[in-house]
Design goal:
It is built from 9 helices and 13 strands. With about 290 residues, the protein is α/β, with parallel strands linked by helices. It has 2 domains: about 120 residues, 3-Layer(aba) Sandwich (Rossmann fold); about 160 residues, Rossmann fold, CATH 3.40.50. The longest helix has 20 residues.
């Protein structure tokens, strides 16, 4: 079997496999071909792949020779006909891309979209969503901290004291929990909203305040995601979020609903009531 590794388009800097992953496949007797420059932005150049036994080719040659093609993002519609009859593996979010998924099926392409794996114990080793969400929650806080014009911790100086930053995190899934932990480590005061009452204990164990809204729909079987809520609940939710956002210095949104658009939790009216200099980091924008 030959497995091919394609280069991702900018601004993506990741690559599906580094030289270590390629070496593991080659030791199992699998041939690996890599597109020129595929790993450069991930600090893994062509020579690193050659040293472990991979062949470095053009994109067209990789696709032609491979039975299985690895690429993080969905191949373009123009590229799909050249993948006819092959297997592709990546994170393609097919529920949000109906035309792309239909074209994949019509070209008899076998597609393994790893973001569709259930978040269960048996599938934990292949759970790319949790691992990437963990990193995203961490990086979101660091990005907010460098963008914010003041400081996260409380500073006491000879000239007076500077109050700690107030951070509002919407969604307490994997990304949200990591964002809470990181913001607390940096010294911020953190408030968290989530439609799932079950996460209250986790939020409070990390030192954050949980904003609770009564009457949420049951999300226990949603695999760690939010679920759609009633109009009455959404009204009360908006009021509580608006009050918290008006006091916040940093707002980080993470809430998503599988197969549907991410909920709009921060409205234009809320933004108008925020203090000048408030930073918003939206981790759910790709599906919003």
């Amino acid at each position: 079997m030959i497995i091919g590794l394609l280069r991702e388009s900018l601004p993506e800097t990741r690559v599906s496999l580094t030289d270590e992953g390629v070496m593991a496949l080659i030791k199992k007797g699998i041939d690996v071909v890599v597109e020129q420059g595929a790993g450069v932005r991930a600090f893994c150049d062509d020579d690193a792949y050659r040293k472990v036994g991979a062949r470095v080719l053009s994109a067209a040659e990789v696709i032609e020779q491979s039975a299985v093609v690895l690429c993080i993002h969905p191949p373009s519609l123009n590229l799909l006909p050249s993948l006819k009859g092959k297997v592709i593996v990546g994170a393609y979010q097919p529920l949000y891309q109906k035309e792309w998924a239909t074209t994949v099926a019509s070209n008899n392409i076998t597609c393994f979209s790893l973001d569709m794996l259930p978040r269960t114990t048996r599938a934990q080793a292949m759970d790319i969503l949790s691992s990437q969400a963990n990193i995203a929650g961490y990086k979101a806080v660091l990005l907010a901290a460098t963008t914010y014009s003041r400081y996260f911790p409380m500073f006491m100086t000879a000239a007076g004291s500077i109050a700690p930053a107030k951070v509002l995190i919407l969604g307490a899934g994997v990304a949200g929990l990591q964002a809470i932990a990181t913001a607390k480590r940096l010294g911020a005061v953190v408030e968290v909203f989530d439609t799932r009452p079950a996460v209250k204990e986790e939020v409070m164990s990390l030192g954050a305040k949980f904003i609770e809204v009564e009457g949420a729909a049951d999300a226990s079987k949603a695999g760690g995601y939010a679920v759609e809520q009633s109009a009455d609940y959404l009204q009360r939710q908006a009021e509580r979020i608006a009050a918290a956002a008006a006091k916040a210095d940093i707002v980080i949104t993470t809430a998503q609903i599988p197969g549907k658009k991410a909920p709009i939790l921060i409205t234009e009216q809320m933004i108008g009531s925020m203090r000048a200099g408030t930073v918003i980091i939206d981790l759910a924008a790709a599906t919003g």
